[in-house]
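Our example copied in:
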Amino acid sequence: MRVALVVPGGVDRSGEYRVIPALLALLAQLTRHHQVEVLALQQEPRAGSWQLAGAHIHNIGARRTRARALRRLLALHRTARFDVLHAIWSGPCSLVAVTAGRLLRVPALVHVAGGELVALADIGYGGAFRWRSRVREHLTLRAAAAVTAASAPAVAQLAAWGVRAERVPLGVDLAAWPARAPRRREAQRPARLLHVASLNAVKDQGTLLHALRALPDECDCHLDIVGEDTLGGRVQRLAAELGLEARVRFHGFLPQRELRPLVEHADLLVVSSRHETGPLVALEAAVAGVPTVGTAVGHIAEWAAAGAALAVPPADPGALAAAIRAVLTDEAQRLHMAHAAQCRALAEDAVHTARAFTELYARVAGVLPARA
C-alpha cells in the first residue's frame, strides 16, 4: 500500500534529536511492507525533505502550514495514488488528513495521541478550550474512516465525545530498545527514581518534587529527571526551595542511547502527569524491567487494574509519595509489577502496532471485511 502519515513533528533528520521514538519505530515497521510518505507540519521552520526510517519526510514549515500541507498531499497523490491517509495526533494533523481524504476519496484514519480532547483550565492545557477547536474535533473525528488511541482511558474519553475508537498502543522497537529482565534492588544503596518527560505544566513536576519531599527518611532515594525544560528553570528553582538539590539531578533532553543506561539503573519510574494517552516511557521502562508508579492516566491507569503499575490521583503529592514508599519498601510487589508490566509491553511492541494499523488500512481500503 501507499500510505501518507501526517504528523506534527518528531521526525528530525538527525534521527536522534527532536524525534519521537515510537513514531520512528512505527515508520521502520511500516516501510518494510508499504511505501510511506510523511508530512511533518512543523518539524523545521522552513520546508524541506529527507529520508528517515525508510520513509520520505516532507517538512511543511511554519507559514500557512495546513494549506500548504494539503496542497502537498494532493500533489503527491497525483504522482502516485495513496491507498490511505493517517493522522498521528488529531488537531491540525487530522484536519489535513481528513480534508485531503474527502477531496481525494481516500480513507483517512486518526490516531489521538495527545491532549486534543482535554481542557485543563488551571494550567491552560488542552485542545478543547476554544469552541472552534471542539467543533473541528467533532467534525474530523466523525469523518475519519477509523479512530484509534493508545490506551483504554483515551478510548473511553473518545466514547464520551460520541466517537468509536479502537485501542492501538504505540509500541517499543525491541531491536533498538531490547528487553532486560527485572532485577532485584541493591538494598545497600539509595533507591533510584526516574522521571522522563518535558518540563511543562501538564507533566506536573511540581507534584513530583513535593512527593519526593514528603517521603519519610527511611525511603533513601535519588531522582533523575530527563526532559527538555520549557519552563525557564521553574522546576529547578522549586527543587532548590524544597531543599532537594542533593537528591535530584536534572539531565535535560537525552537521546535514546544516553537515556537507556539511566533506565537500566532505575528502580522505579515515576509519572506525575495530569494527562497522558500513553505514555511511551512507561512501555520503555517496562521493557527494560523497571516498574512504574504514577498518576492514573493512560497506560498507568489501565495497568494498575492488572497489578502492572500503581496509580494515584493526579496533583496529589501525598498519594504519590505513599505509592512510591509502598513499592520501595515491598520488593516482592515491585518485582511483580515489573514482570507484569514487561509482559504487557512486550506483547504490544512496535511490530504489534504496525500490524494493527496495517489491518486497519486494509479494512478501510476495502481489502478486508469490517469487524462485526
About this structure: The two ends are 24 Å apart (CA to CA). Residues 117 and 128 are 5 Å apart (CA to CA). Residues 191-347 form a domain with the Rossmann fold fold (CATH 3.40.50.2000). The chain has a mean pLDDT of 95.
